[in-house]
Model the fold of this input.
Amino acid sequence: MKHVITLLLLCVSAMLNAQCPTENKAFKPGERLTYDLYFNWNFIWVKAGTAYYSTKAVTYKGQQALRTDLISLSNKRCSAIFPMKDTIMAYTTEDLVPLYFRKGASEGKRYTVDQVWYSYVNGETQLKQRYLNSKGKVSDYSAKRSDCVYDMASMLSLARSFDKNVYCKRKGQRFTFYLASGDDVEEEILQYDGCKNWKANDGVTYRCLMFTLIDDEDEKKERKLLTFYVTDDDNHLPIRIDFFLKFGSAKAFLTKSENIRNEQTSIVKGKNK
Done:
């Protein structure tokens, strides 16, 4: 992958440029976001924990990179019934080309790990994937794609950097891309669902752009994976995220934002508005 030697870095940079680099104007290292987590238990929504979303500047295999962490923790009340700790870590280049992804999910008595390593050769995305299942079995996979490939973390970073004038022209507008997990690469759909005001758990009402991530592997029936609301300004802060899980559904609502990059022009009410 990447090496410290300058000549090799230049070669790698040229290869990465063929892999959909995106200028990041939305967030900067040091941004920290905090969310309240809610789960649906028997048709009743209950507060189940807290999630932390952060970005920092790091060095990954000799080159400057961004590291994104998303950590979800169940509270004491929820842990007594269904303990949960999910940790997502992703490395990308500064222009949001994926380098590495890891998701560790501890849910109840189950613990699984998904990992994806990315490399780029002659404009081709090469993937090394690993999956640890709940029984402790490790399986390795590999894949190659001539298209750009993302994971759930790098996809969210990419969506935050979308040019509104290109990607949000009309409600229902769709874009397809490849999404990697630890054991598969699937073609998914990102759909723009319009604009809506939403009051976050920080007491502020924001004007938001709404997107839905859709799995269309089953040709007869599409399946929603998640819906997320991002602020309609240059920050594209994730204000609300709805997760459609195998065992139910969950929601995350923003409670605190720190070290934001741009002026928050999407605020409709609150924060001295």
User: Anything to note?
Assistant: The helical segments are 6-16, 76-79, 152-160, 164-167.
